[in-house]
Amino acid sequence: MEGENDRQNFLEYWRQFGNIANINGMMLNANASLIEKNDRHDVCLLLPDLKGKTVLDAGAGIGRFTAELAERAEKVYASDFISEYVTKLQELSAEALKNGKIIDVTVADATCLSYPENSYFLVFTNWLFMYFNNTECVRFTVNALKWLEEGGYFKLRESCSEPSTRRVGNRNETSLHAAVQSNPTEYRFSSVYLKLIEAARYVDSNNQKWKFEIEICGSIPTYILNGNTWRQVQLIAKKVKADDNDVVLSQDELKNLMTNDWIMEQKKTDSIVDGRVQYFADKIFANELSNIDMTNTESISSIFVFQSSFNPWYKRIFPFSLASNKYCHVWTNEGNRELFRCSLTSANEERNIGMFFTYSKDNVFNALDYVKKRNFLLNSFLAIDYLNNHEVNFIESFNNIASQDAKILLLESFSNEDEKNLKLSKLNKQYTVKCVTENVHNEVKNVHQDEEIVCDVTSKKWMLINVNH
User: Fold this and answer.
1) 274-467 adopts what CATH topology?
2) 276 forms bridges with which residues in the sheet?
3) CB of 96 within 8 A of CB of 78?
4) Which segment of the chain is annotated as a signal peptide (predicted)?
């Protein structure tokens, strides 16, 4: 049963490392100095503009991010419960004050923090929820909604599904905790965190309902490049008004969903998707991309794959089927939370560092904005049945980060000429259309054994649209 014993286990676990009040101790990695700067850059890349703002750095440790937050913000409130870490934070605070920056240090367990409504513009956490039980995760998430001002942000970064460092006893070991030590850390599914943040609601003192809108979620690039792991996951979520008719789940209900339903939903999706290495649309797109120059060394280009949340799981593109090398990556934005987690599983198995995955629920602008921040140059945009539920209003944003000869390829299904023309009428740019019905029907029969899937796909005609931009 969750409760006092859980918290005591976490407290004792971290007190083991209190005497290692440095970067290695914070990252529990003996080689942390090799990746710390790049890791910090990756995390801070998602931060909003903090000029003149107030920030909460909860579970700040020795202040890996506190000083940088203070450089950007008006004031930072930093808290931790390990005395050695608090001493480091106080030293940071004194140094910051010399430069006119304010860091207010509090000795407190992050589970016990309490603030009034609208206290902060940013609530920042890094490897915090993995040391909470489910009840504490729920409580902190709802409290973050309370503490943030309208339009404020919640920043989360966690190790998902498994540790990112190996155990002592292996000569390649980098982890600081020995194999014999008890590790109470919770390595949750990334989809569970996504669902918690999107399901949480807060009703304020004026009876206004609030929720989080996740802008972007993705793997930490430094861990992909240096550890071949895609399960270091971060996200940024914005506090926005919720609909009046939104259901406000109790904290107990959210905790039960975390403990049971959301895990079962992920495992069900895993059982369908894990191990699958081909989808019916893969060859259709691969053939169209075969003439793209992937040897240009002037900049890293990327194929951008947009996976709509409205599509069933089999209307997907398997990104690993697309050609990639050190000059051309594949960036996939997934709109389904469970399938996003499945993508990370595939990435960990394939170990192709040219693959990058994000989650943004059907918001192509947020995904493209993050691509821009990462300084990627896009050579193509791929999607299936995009015109069923989305507008082609992203072209200007796409052009800002696309090569001159980049392609926008939409594989679209239709039942009759009226439906076909309705889809084409949504395009406000010139385009060319290729009939690929026979190709799609043949591919789905080759790839999928499920009769319902084959029937669904073959019941429609298919066209491949190349949109001029």
Assistant:
1) Rossmann fold (3.40.50)
2) none
3) no
4) none
